[in-house]
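WARN retry 2 of 3 for item q-0093 after timeout on previous attempt; input resubmitted unchanged.
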Amino acid sequence: MKKNIKLPDLANQNILIADYEDEMKQSYIDYAMSVIAARALPDIRDGLKPVQRRTLYAMKDLNVTPDKPYRKCARIVGDTMGKYHPHGDGSIYNSMVRMAQDFTYKQELIDGHGNFGSIDGDGAAAMRYTEAKLKPISLELLEDIDKDIVEMKTNFDETLMEPTVLPAKFPNALVNGMTGIAVGMSTNFPTHNLGEIIDGTIAYIQDEDITVKELMTHIKGPDFPTGGVIANKNQLEDIYTTGKGKIKIRAKIDIEKNSNGKHHIIIKEIPYTLIGNKSNLIENLAELVKNKKINGIQDIRDESSRGEIEIIIETKKDVDPDILVNKLYSKTKLEDNFSVNMLALHKQKPYLFNLKSSLQKFVEFQQEIYTKRYQFLLNKELDKKEGTEGLLRAYDEIDIIIEAIRGAKNAKAVKKCLMTGDTTDINFRTKKSENLAKKFDYTERQATIILEMRLYKLVGLEKLEVEKQYREIMRKIKRYEKILGNKKELNKTIIVELQRISDKYSTNRKTQLKNLETFNVIEEDIVEDVYVLVDDKNYIKTVDPNIFEKNKEKILSEMKCVIDATTKDKISLFDEEGYLYKIKVDDIPKTKLSDKGTAISVLTSINEDHIIMIDKLLDNDKLLFVTKYGLIKHVDTKEFNSSRSKIAATKLNDNDSVIKIIKPNNEDKLITITANGYALIISTDEIPNQKRNAKGVNLIKLGNNDHIIDIAFVDSEQKTIQVDVDGQINKKNISAIGIHKRNSKGKQIIPSSKNIIGFLQKK
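OK item q-0093 returned
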C-alpha cells in the first residue's frame, strides 16, 4: 500500500515529485520501447537496424562509394558515431563487419578490405587496420535519398538530418535476413535468393491476392550464404504463412570410396547456424570420437581454404558410411534448426510478418517512394519548362528586350518591365517598341534567366538547341505525369527497376531444398524437465528444475502460474471468447530466474487481457466450464487433442463469455455467486459431460440484469464459505444456503447493492 510521505516544499525549486513505483514502471517501458524501436529490431521496409542504416548513410556522406578508394573503418565508425549513432564504437564496427561477410550476408552491403573475420569464428582485425567502401548493391538502398523521398529527422544533437528509413529498391529484409534481440521479443528472418525474392515481389505486384503457396512457385525457400540442405521443405509453406517455425538445415556431405575399403565423408557446406563456429564443430566431432559416442571414424581433417569448406572425415575399414553420416546428423550440429520469427518494425511498432505481408509492406513502400521520386522529377522538369518557355519567347522578342536593356537606368527597371510591362524608367527609341514592351508578362524566374543570358546564346543554333531541350522536357513531363496518374504505370516502372536489379546482382541458389524425413536418421529425443513460469504481466519463461527448487517459495509467491512440464509438452491457454491456444514448451525461452521472459502475445495470438486459464492438460483430465450468463458443463481434455495452435474450446451464445475454467478434484458440491448476491449450491453429479462444441446446460436461474461472478468447489467437511465484498471478507454458513437443484434461483446472501468480487479460497 502506498504511504503518504511528507516532503519539503519543492515547488519553487523546479523539482517534480514522482511516485517511485510509477516512475520505475514508466522508465522501464520507455527503455523497452527504445531498445525495440531504436536499437534491436529492423524496419520491414529497408531491412536495417538503426546502426546499419546510419553506417551506410555515413559512408554515403563520406563518399566511400564503389568507384572510390577504400577508407579506414576507424574513420567510418567515427563519422557514424559522431554524427548519427551516439553509442559504443564496438557496435558500429561489428555491424560493419557483418555487412561485409559473405558467409553472413547473402548480398554483402559493404566491401571490406583486410581481415573481416572468418567462418571459423576468428574475429575481425581492429578497425584501425581494416578498410571499407560501399558495395554496388548498397547504392540500390541509398539512391535518390537526396530527393525528399524518405522522411528525415534530426540527429541526436539536432545539428544534422538523418533518414528514418533508406529508399531501398529491393526487399533487403528477406534477401539478407534480419536478426535481433530486444526486450521481451526477438527477430530472426532467414536469408533468400535475390532473384527469387524479386520474382516473388513482381508476382505480388501483378496480383495482390496471390497466396503464400503461389508465391512459393517463385520463392522456393530460404537460400543461405553457407549453402547446406533444408531438410523439411514440406513445412516451409506453414512457416511462410505464420511467420514462425523451425527450418531444419543440414550440412552438405559427399561420400567418396577409397580402394582400401575406407570412405571419405566430405563436409562441403555447413548449416548457416554454424557461422563463426566451424572450429567448435570440429572440436565437438573429435570429442565425440574420443568419448566413443561415435564409432567408426579413423581421422578428421580440416582442409578448408578461403571461401571453401572441406572437412574430411576418414572412416575405418568396412564401416557403412551412410549409417555414420546419419549418426553425425543426429549427434552433432551438422543438422541444426534455424528458428524463424519474422518480427519487424512497421510505423515504429513491432509486428509479426509472414512472407506475403513482408512483400506487401515493401511494395507499398516502393509505391510511396516512387511517387515521391517522380513528383520530385516532375517538379524539376516543370521548373525547367518555365525557364525554357521564357527563353523561346525571348528569342522572338529579343530586339525589344535589348532595346529595353540599353534604355534602362538599371537592371531592376528592366526586370520590372519584363515581368509587368512597366516602361516608366526606360527610354525606347520608338513608341512602337515601347508599346510592344508594355505587353511583357514574363515570370520572375523567366525574367532572371533572360537577364543572366550571355550574348552568344542569341545565335540561331542556340535557339535550335533550346527548342530541342524543350521537346525533351515536355517528353519527360508527359512520362512523369503518366506514371503519377496511373497506378498500373507506376507498378510497371517498379517492376522494370526490380528486374534491372535482379539481372545485375542475382546469383545462383546455394541451398538445396529437400524432404528428408524418410531418411534413416538416428535421432535421440532429448527431453528436458522444466518449470513454466507466468507472471502477472503475462510474461512467460522456463527455468531449470534445480533453479525452481532453490527458489521455490519466492517463485510461488511472485508468479501467477507455475507448471511442471517437459520440453515435449504443450501449454494450454483459454480465453474469455472460448478459444484454446497452445504453446510448445520448447518454444518458450529458457532464461535465468531474474530475466523478464517473453510476452505471451509474441508466442501466440491470444489477447493477454482475456486469458482466464493457463495449464498443462493431461489426456485423462476433465475441465469445468462456466459462462457469465449461467451455462455450465464438464469437458474431457481429450476433446482438445489437436495439432492446431488455436481451436474453439466451447460454444457460446451471443454476448456471453467464459468466466472460469477449473480442474475438478474430488469435491462433490459446487457453489455459485451472482452479481445480485444470489448463491446456489448444487451437486457436481448434476453437471453433464459434453463435447467442446456444446454450449452447456443452465447452472442457475438468473434474474434481470444479473450474471455469475464466481464459482467454487465445496468439500463435504466445509462449514463456511468466504466472499470478498467491496474488499471486505463476508463469511457465510453453507448449511444456511442449502443444497438445491441445478437451474434453481438460489438464495440471496448479499444485498444486490454491494460490489461482489468473488470467493476467497486457499491456493
